[in-house]
Write a structure and sequence with these properties.
- It is built from 10 helices and 15 strands.
- It has about 375 residues and is of the alpha+beta class.
- The strands form 5 sheets. A 7-stranded mixed β-sheet has the order 1-12-7-2-3-4-13, covered by helices on one side. Strands 5-6 form a two-stranded antiparallel sheet. The protein has a two-stranded antiparallel ribbon with strand order 8-11.
- The radius of gyration is 27 Å and the shape is globular.
């Protein structure tokens, strides 16, 4: 029977072939190789037997936190007949993924109740203060976050033209999904809704985040004033929440708020990917406990799917996350007098084509959007 540890052994010389003297005394090297391989095998066996026990328990704990504390959006998607279909991809190549992220500022009971109705798929008074499409290309080399201005004037299926954030009020999460799919001609794979209050716990769980403030401002929240100076600011939870909420301090209002939210999320990504959070079990569990109660997710985005996605993105760093805003053509007035944001139809058509052809990276590079717009 052959020895599996000696597969690299030199073949015996053919009959009648003289063996060189230098080859006559080689028994020590195969023995060293055999011992090395046995040591390696023992080490592997120890890893196989011991590590999955502790690691499995840890991962099960994280999965339990996520699955039990997040709210499920049971009716997140419109009827299949009304949906955009995913473009075909070559066999064996992962499909690009699109995740719709909605942020709401539900500060009182009435707003939280409206948010719950919208999450259940019903019409409500809820609005999406923040709306982003996270696009993950098939090569999994980047994450692109496209912010959609909440006052963007679009066609809402079955309702006509209106501000995009009105889709939640008209038909809950399913209509919002259908509206974004119709606007960008992209199928939404997952839906996440985050209450802004979750930013506070998330920031504190990370031990604070460092945000690059481009436009200095102050924000009054209750009896407290928060001051954000130009340059790097280390924010705790309360400061982070004030930072992402403020819009009245800026001449361009919601435009700057969106840019601030992108800067904040960029800081979160830096702390998560580059700051050791993913490799620190205590911090990671603390982050999950802090943010999960403020998350609502479609059922398909369970802990197993999150784990698969995290594994596919394991080599990413913060520099690989790109934030920009869907191009607009300025502000205007609707026929009924509402202040609205006008879509840049030509630019949106280019983005639709880039998304469909899985070449959004090329579009971003050509438009120099690596640091936003």
């Amino acid at each position: 029977m052959s020895n599996r540890f000696e597969v690299d052994r030199e073949p015996a010389p053919e009959h009648g072939t003289a063996q060189a003297p230098a080859q006559l005394d080689t028994g020590a090297e195969p023995r060293r190789r055999t011992r090395s391989r046995r040591v390696l095998l023992v080490a592997v066996l120890i890893m196989v037997l011991l590590v999955p026990g502790s690691m499995g328990a840890y991962l099960f704990s994280l999965a339990t936190i996520y699955d039990t504390q997040t709210t499920k959006i049971e009716e997140a998607f419109p009827p299949e007949a009304a949906r955009v279909q995913s473009p075909a991809t070559p066999a064996g190549v992962p499909k690009p993924m699109n995740i719709l992220v909605m942020g709401s500022d539900s500060r009182d009971k009435a707003e939280r109740k409206a948010s719950a109705k919208a999450a259940a798929g019903a019409s409500s008074d809820q609005r999406a203060d923040t709306l982003m499409l996270l696009h993950i290309p098939s090569d999994r080399d980047h994450i692109y976050s496209i912010s959609l201005m909440r006052d963007l004037w679009v066609d809402i299926p079955g309702r006509g033209e209106a501000k995009i954030n009105a889709a939640l009020a008209f038909g809950g999460v399913p209509l919002m999904v259908q509206t974004v799919e119709s606007l960008l001609q992209q199928r939404i794979d997952h839906v996440v809704s985050l209450d802004f209050a979750g930013f506070k716990g998330l920031t504190d769980a990370l031990g604070g985040v460092e945000v690059d403030v481009k436009v200095p401002f102050s924000s009054v929240r209750g009896d407290k004033t928060y001051v954000f100076n130009k340059g790097l600011n280390t924010l705790n939870g309360a400061q982070g929440l004030a930072f992402v909420r403020e819009r009245y301090a800026f001449p361009d209002g919601d435009y700057q708020r969106v840019r601030n939210q992108q800067s904040y999320l960029r800081a979160i990504m830096a702390k998560t990917f580059d700051g050791g959070t993913l490799g620190n079990p205590v911090t990671l569990a603390r982050v999950l406990r802090a943010v999960s109660p403020f998350l609502s997710v479609a059922p398909g985005l369970d802990s197993i799917e999150v784990g698969r996605l995290a594994f596919s993105l394991r080599d990413l760093r913060s520099r690989d996350t790109i934030f920009f805003t869907l191009p607009t053509a300025g502000v205007g007035r609707s026929a009924d007098g509402q202040s609205i944001v006008l879509p840049d139809v030509g630019a949106i058509e280019e983005i639709k084509a880039a998304l469909t052809e899985d070449r959004l990276g090329g579009y971003v590079a050509a438009r120099k959007l690596g640091r936003g717009n």
